[in-house]
Amino acid sequence: MRGAAIDRAAPRPHRSATMPNPHLRVSRTGPVATVVIDRIEKRNCLDLPMWEAMAEIFTDLSADDSLGCVILRGAGEEAFCAGADIGRFGQDHGGRAKDERYAGGLGGAIAAIRDCRHPVVAAIAGWCMGGGAALATACDFRVGGEGARIGIPARKLGIWYPHAALDLLLGIVGYPVACELLIEGRVLEGAEAKSLGLLNRCVPDAQVFAEAEALAARICEGAPLSNRFHKQALRALRGPLPIPAETLAQAGRYTETEDFRNAVQAFLEKRRPVFAGR
């Protein structure tokens, strides 16, 4: 029954049309699906195929009327998601066509989570940085541990955060805190993130996943059509982004800057980048 508590039996694999990436696992327990970013050796960071697969998975889950909630988490306890795989930038970027595909993959993953008809809960243990923070803010609820570290180090790589992710962040924490995260580059730990509205719940680290599952169970006790309506209505009230298409496209042009290329090389060489402003 949809209103029942989560079945505590072992989760079964979610039967979707596709299982598009080995680093993204989907399981199902009753009316709750859990998506796990499983790349522990890289702190669960995502490359282009993973961004694209994330969008495919959430599009598939959104179409499943038997679901009541989705949980998004990282494998292990060290990281929810440390963001984009910078070591893969040489393969994922290079030329306008590749850059546009990457921007589309990232933007598609964010949009698919944001637009999923079912409520989505992010279970944040450990690092939640950059693109990981974008995924978390696309979710409807964020449960984090006291030791969680949430930040957006885009400025250290000469990266420009996309407008869709900026809009989500701005709607959650407001302009002053968004500036602290993006321009000052602050990294927030669990309790402070909760006090600033970035987390809905802050719990001891060992309780993050249990609390996320309990929250999903409470969500599923409600009428699914009501939950879906309210999620859609709240999103609709914000309206579309008032940004021209050409301005939206410019967000991905950071890859054409000297600062970006130098910063990526500095990251790979484990040294501090020097920015020239061009």
Automatic annotation (TrEMBL):
CDD domains: crotonase-like. Residues 1-24 are annotated as: Disordered. It comes from the Bacteria. The keyword Glycoprotein does not apply. One of its GO terms (biological process) is fatty acid beta-oxidation. Its EC number is 4.2.1.17. The keyword Transmembrane helix does not apply. One of its GO terms (molecular function) is isomerase activity. Keywords: Isomerase, Lyase. Belongs to the enoyl-CoA hydratase/isomerase family. PANTHER family: ENOYL-COA HYDRATASE, MITOCHONDRIAL, ENOYL-COA HYDRATASE-RELATED. This is Enoyl-CoA hydratase/isomerase family protein. It comes from Pseudoroseomonas cervicalis ATCC 49957.
